C-alpha cells in the first residue's frame, strides 16, 4: 500500500545538537501547540467512535485498547485510571500491550511484529460481540494491532483506532477510525512526542465522554470515584457538602457509611 507516513518525515528543524536549552524548549513547545488543533479536526471521528462505544457498553460491553510501545503504554494508562476516577470495575476498560506487562517498562524485542498475538491476548479476556477494540498506532502499520483488528472484524467485534497517518492500513481497517495528522516530529520519527500527545488527548476524550454518558459524573463531579487516599476522601466530603446542607463532620460520616459521594447524597435525599 502506497501512503505517506507524515510521522516519519524529516523534522523541519536542523542541527538540534547546536541549539541552546532555551531554543530546544521553545521549538518543542511550538510543535506541541499544533497538536490540539490537529485533534480538533478529528472531532467528528472521535464523536462517531464514542457514540458506538456508549451503545456497546450499555449492552454490557467493554473497551479494549491494544498497541505496542508508546501507544500500548498510553492505552494502559487510560484504562488503569478509569476505576479510581469513575468507580467502574477494573475489567470494564482494558489496556493490552504487545509483549505483555513486562513491555510496560522495557521494550520486548519483535513483540509488535507478531500478527497473531493480539487476538490470543484478547481471547484471554473472553472477547465478545458487545465489546469494542481500539487499536492505537501512530504509524498505522503496527502488525500486532493490524492482526488484532483483522480478527475482530472477522468476528463481528466493533473496531476503532487512533493513528496519525492519513490513509494508513489501520485507518482503513477500523470500523470507526480516528486519524489525527500531527505531521513530522521535532526529532525525526520520535512519535512518542506529538503523536503520543495526540493519542493521549484522544484517549482522555474517549474514556471521559463515555463515562459521562454512562452516568458516572454528576454536574461536574466524580461522584463514583474510589476513595483511595486522604486527598480523595477530603474531596468527596466537600462534594457531599456542595450537594446537601450538612457539616464537614456529617458529610464525613455519610461518606464513611455509604462509601461513595453518589450513595451518600442519594441516601440523604431519600429521607
What does this molecule look like?
With 271 residues, this protein is α/β, with parallel strands linked by helices. It has 11 helices and 5 strands. It has a 5-stranded parallel sheet, with helices on both faces. α9 packs parallel to α11 (261-269) and α10 packs across α11 (261-269). The longest helix is centred in the last third of the chain and has 20 residues, at 194-213.
Largest sheet: 5 strands, parallel
Average residue pLDDT: 95
Number of helices: 11
Q: Identify the overall geometry.
A: globular
Structure class: alpha/beta
Strand order of the largest sheet: 2-1-3-4-5
Estimated share of beta-strand residues: 5-15%
The portion of residues assigned to helices is 40-55%
Contiguous low-pLDDT stretches (5 residues minimum) are none
Instruction: From the alpha carbons, calculate the radius of gyration and give it in angstroms.
Output: 21 Å
How far from one another are the termini?
A: 65 Å
Number of strands: 5
The helix/strand order is: HHHEHEHEHEHEHHHH
